[in-house]
Design a protein that fits this description.
The chain is an alpha/beta fold. α10 packs across α12. It has twelve helices and 14 strands.
């Protein structure tokens, strides 16, 4: 199958079928042309790899060899359990929970329409969609929802004050008692996305949150390739299922490193979980000076409060990365700012975590310093602009100040029409 049918150099491959050749690239970026390949077994993702493309492409035999060398063991394990996975999928479709899909958006009608189309194409039947229109200045979002023509299934509500966290909190208030699946408007959902979430919830009834991978929908510009080299949205989480809880704290600290837990671009939250931590911090997230971090803080607080997070690779979405270098620079600055802003917020709420953070500081500093052993830089290529790493570092330096400034602003009556550009507006 091909969910995103060879968008640029993104390939969605089924290992139980003959693998196709990769034709000659139409263009080559600064470091040459590359292909990012998602590999599945019976529609379940088992792994991904990025390969350099020769000028004349790769024949099918070469693709087979590369895939087997990188993922052969995972493919064989998945093939051995394919019947069990098929039964789990059937059970999820038959007995999974009602799910409300939330899409927070800010005047991006084309992206929203594409996202809604993918949600309505889900193989899972028990869901509704809530579109949160954040501080709209136009009627474009309302028109997209009207054109869907499914008022029984797709509803629009308005979050009058700009900012992703505020939009998320409006959705939380409107979905009390419901299981909520969160997806950004610049993404498309894999047809088995909701089925994957339901599978995880049935297998782990104690879970408070389910997260899943965020794959690149296209890699058509150098900026998109560089973002994926930097870890993309999934930050090296891979395609191995994982459970994070107080029982795993000795092997994976809830404080650092953060990537294994998930990202707000692809989350499902169970009833009461976000309410239990007081909602999303409105001084964090896109549309604030902090520019991000609301999902990082929420996930960390859930773990610190004794909650369980399940990482489910089959709950997959595809993200359209920024195409231009200037946009990517702003985004990586925002990632750095959001990260340290989230830590600042955590310390203000839970000062007792300070000793743990101090113990983890040497590891964090080694990662920031880079080098071949650093997870921060291990996947970037020689063509990766070092200015992007510098922008990310500047964001980290400014994050705490930005967070405190945003908190002060939040104590004043907010202007419902004001917009502060974040890493991706509301995405």
């Amino acid at each position: 199958m091909s969910v995103v049918a060879e968008a640029g150099r993104v390939l969605d491959l089924e290992a139980t079928a003959p693998l196709p050749p990769i034709p000659a690239p139409q263009w080559s970026g600064p470091g040459g042309a590359r292909a990012w390949m998602l590999v599945r077994v019976d529609r379940d993702p088992v792994g991904a790899l990025m390969v350099d493309l020769p000028v004349d492409g790769l024949p099918a035999a070469a693709v087979e060899e590369l895939v087997d060398a990188a993922l052969g063991e995972q493919i064989r394990r998945a093939s051995a359990s394919a019947d069990q996975v098929a039964r789990q999928r059937e059970e999820a479709i038959a007995a999974g929970p009602e799910i409300t899909v939330v899409v927070c958006t800010l005047d991006r009608p084309a992206a929203l329409a594409r996202c809604l189309d993918s949600i309505l194409a889900q193989s899972y039947g028990r869901f509704r969609v809530l579109v949160v229109d954040n501080a709209p200045e136009r009627t474009a979002t309302a028109e997209v929802v009207r054109l869907v023509g499914r008022p029984d299934l797709v509803e629009r509500i308005v979050a009058p004050v700009s900012g992703l966290s505020r939009a998320r909190n409006v959705a939380v208030a409107a979905t009390r008692g419901e299981t909520v699946a969160w997806i950004d408007d610049d993404e498309v959902a894999d047809p088995l996305w909701l089925c994957g979430i339901a599978r995880a919830l049935l297998a782990h009834p104690d879970a408070g949150i389910v997260s899943g991978p965020v794959a690149p929908a296209e890699l058509q510009t150098p900026a998109q390739v560089w973002f994926e080299q930097f870890g993309g949205h999934s930050k090296g989480r891979g395609f191995t299922p994982a459970v994070f809880s107080p029982d795993t704290a000795t092997t994976q600290s809830p404080l650092y490193p953060l990537p294994p837990f998930g990202a707000g671009a692809n989350l499902a939250t169970c009833p009461g979980v976000i309410e239990s931590i007081g909602g999303f911090d409105t001084a964090l997230g896109a549309g604030t000076r902090s520019m991000g971090g609301e999902d990082t803080l929420a996930l960390t607080r859930v773990l610190l409060d004794g909650g369980t997070i399940v990482y489910q690779p089959s709950a997959l979405v595809w993200h359209y990365h920024r195409r231009d270098l200037a946009g990517l620079r702003r985004q990586l600055y925002g990632y750095g700012s959001g990260l340290t802003a989230a830590y600042t917020a955590l310390l203000l709420r839970h000062p007792g975590v300070l000793p743990g953070l101090v113990r983890l500081a040497p590891t964090a500093l080694r990662d920031l310093a880079g080098g071949s052993a650093s997870a921060r830089t291990a996947t970037i290529g020689p063509d990766f602009p070092r200015a992007l790493l510098a922008a990310n570092m500047r964001g980290m330096v400014h994050g705490p100040v930005s967070y405190l400034a945003e908190r002060r602003r939040g104590h004043r009556a907010p202007d419902a029409r004001r917009r502060t550009r974040g890493t991706d507006q509301l995405a």
